[in-house]
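Re: the 198-residue chain
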Amino acid sequence: MTSKSDAAGANEQGEQENTPSEQADTPVDEQSQATGDSDPQDQGSDPIADIKDALTQAQAQAQAHYEQMLRAQAEMENVRRRAQEEVSKARKFGIESFAESLVPVRDSLEAALGQLDQSPEDMRAGIETTLKQLSGAFERNHLSEIAPAPGEKFDPHLHQAIATVPAEQESNTVVAVLQKGYLISERVLRPALVTVAS
């Protein structure tokens, strides 16, 4: 016969045997939570992959900036080339307008020389007409006279003194104009030749 003490011992042994199996039936997640371990995937992405992504983005940005720089250089080169062409054209054709204005003046002079039987009065009238044409050409091309009046203050920027002469006027003033000067767009083309009071 089995005694009560044997039965109690068997029950205690069964409970001890059940304890490990119950622990085995416990889910892994609960065990890992209990032990404090975590899944490596929950710790974030791979730092090497992050660095590779950042490098790829930086290289793409650098390539974009390089292409922008090349385009800017090409545009600057085009601007420089166009500017050189414009300067070359300005030098080559800068007097075109003035030349067009002078052509009729030459025509008038040749026509006057072709009339051999004209009177002195007709010749003078033709010369005056030609002079008006020339003055108009000068005016259209911003070519103006430098012709100081007697008594005007001598200006070394506009006048060239040929001689100083005694005169009944203030010293360092223009006495007479020997040759007119000319300005072209406010720049002295030729100074006026003058005599100056001493």
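The beta strands are 143-146, 159-165, 174-179, 181-184, 187-190, 192-197.
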